[in-house]
Amino acid sequence: MPPDIPISHSSNSLITDLSKIVGNQYVIWKPEDLLVYEYDGSIDKAMPQAVVLPSTAEEVSEIVRTANRHGAYIVARGAGTSLSGGAVALRNSVIIALTRLTNLIEVDPKNRIAIVEPGMINLHLSERVSHLGLFYAPDPASQKTCTIGGNVGENAGGPHCLALGVTTNHVLGLEVVLADGSLTWFGGTERESTGYDLRGAFVGSEGTLGIVTKIAVRLLPKPEVIHSMLAAFTTMDAASNTVSEIIAQGMVPSALEMMDRNTIDAVEPFYQPGYPVEAQAVLIVEVDGLKESVEEQVEAIIEICNNNGAMEIREANDEESRAKLWETRKGAIGAYGSIAPTYYLVDGVVPRTKLREILRQVDQIAAELQVTVANVFHAGDGNIHPAILFNERNPEEVKQAILAGSRILEACVAAGGALSGEHGIGIEKQAYMPLVFNEDDLEAMGRLRKAFIGDSPDSAPIDVPSLEERFNPGKVFPGGAVHGEAYGITDKSFRPTGTQDWQ
């Protein structure tokens, strides 16, 4: 089905029915008010037909049933920080915005478990349990704004996922609303469970299988000691060698992050970190744990940095200096606005041994296509984030940016890597899924989706060909949408060479 064909029998009647559930003030339908929901953190956009803001799981359930009666597709949305188009409302969908479901329902400090609603801001959970000596580990760069429900949808990571794991490693159970509006739990509060791992299938499903309304997460005790360091290098190769040698010695820092010269230039005016002007790369390394172990690791890491020609090493062993060190890393993406008005953040993964090679390829692609690329990424696990900087008002720059992203992703796969480390597939990468998965793989995924969604009900509106995609339609699977369509890119063909023809 074309993405922009209205599928509701009567928008007015739908709005009326949604208002009966949540109240008029929590249904947004005027075009001028919907503009803010046209975007997420990606470069793709589409206008929803309405946005509804429930306050309880029961209201979410009733909204789903109502949408089904009207033949409306549904997109669940948290803070809208998705970088792959995951929260963009294709197919004239109704957005269910979960930002009113923000409660910390329960904390069990003995078993180190919390139950939260999906609209809770990621960082707020750690702040709420800090007095208990606990924290929530996944920490995306957007943790001050992103929601835990959105993190579940995208299986979000963050700088500390190297040692502590991504979202799926910290989610024990989920309450979800299924396609028929029913509420059920997958998993629970036990650390081990028997039977099929439906919780695992749901985490990272990008909102295509249902809507999360409660999340049981595990909490971790704060480490005895945290020690952060920043090392500046004259070349990206030297910084990459340092990363490889740290890991080769058997150390797994809690974080191992890298920024290149373009990123350094972007953050300097905002945060004034005072990095050396000759630096072409900086590493942020953090280790934590028992005091004796941390001291040994810090000594070894400093030696490795010096052996690779580090021109400066800064140590931060208290909370204030540590926060100052990290603010440049977590604020880097926002700072790109000082270089260009728009960025396209590519999320790919390569083996650590291929890190130097892929960074050289990124530079080569940027030079050939005459685009500016800034790099800030999780070096420790090979999760790269080249930010392609461009002006969205220039159609040629948009096309070049998307083409550059295509070639970078293809290079990651060719190097033995993956299409995504933590940002999902969404709209951005669906055309590239055949680079990694064959037809049988994709068919199996489709059957799983259908098992959750079910067939369209007999009472479905006659103008709706299928409601198999009723949750977050047009995402993940090839053929759902065109990356960059909002900017006039209409060619739906994809070639394994990484090239596309633009109309």
If you had to describe this structure to a student in words, what would you say it looks like?
- The strands form five sheets. This protein has a seven-stranded antiparallel β-sheet, sandwiched between helices. Strands 5-6-10-8-9 form a five-stranded antiparallel β-sheet. Strands 1-2-4-3 form a four-stranded mixed β-sheet.
- It has 15 helices and 20 strands.
- It has 503 residues and is α+β, with helices and mostly antiparallel strands.
- 51% of the residues are buried.
- Among the domains are: 104-221, Uridine Diphospho-n-acetylenolpyruvylglucosamine Reductase, domain 3 (2-Layer Sandwich); 225-334, Alpha-Beta Plaits (2-Layer Sandwich); 340-435, Alpha-Beta Plaits.
**Biggest β-sheet: count, sense, barrel?**
7 strands, antiparallel
**What's the alpha carbon Rg, rounded to whole Å?**
23 Å
Task: Please provide the count of β strands.
Answer: 20
Task: Give the distance, in angstroms, between the N- and C-terminal Cα atoms.
Answer: 21 Å
Q: Layout of SSEs?
A:
Layout: H1 11-22, E1 27-28, H2 31-34, E2 50-52, H3 57-70, E3 74-77, E4 94-97, E5 104-108, E6 113-116, H4 122-129, E7 134-135, H5 148-154, H6 161-164, E8 171-177, E9 183-187, H7 198-202, E10 211-218, E11 220-221, E12 225-233, H8 236-248, E13 255-260, H9 261-271, E14 281-289, H10 291-307, E15 312-316, H11 319-330, H12 332-335, E16 342-345, E17 348-349, H13 355-369, E18 372-378, E19 383-384, E20 386-390, H14 395-414, H15 439-453
Parallel strand pairs: 2-4, 3-4
Antiparallel strand pairs: 1-2, 5-6, 6-10, 7-11, 8-9, 8-10, 12-14, 12-15, 13-14, 13-18, 16-20, 17-19, 18-20
Helix pairs in contact: 1-3, 8-10, 13-14
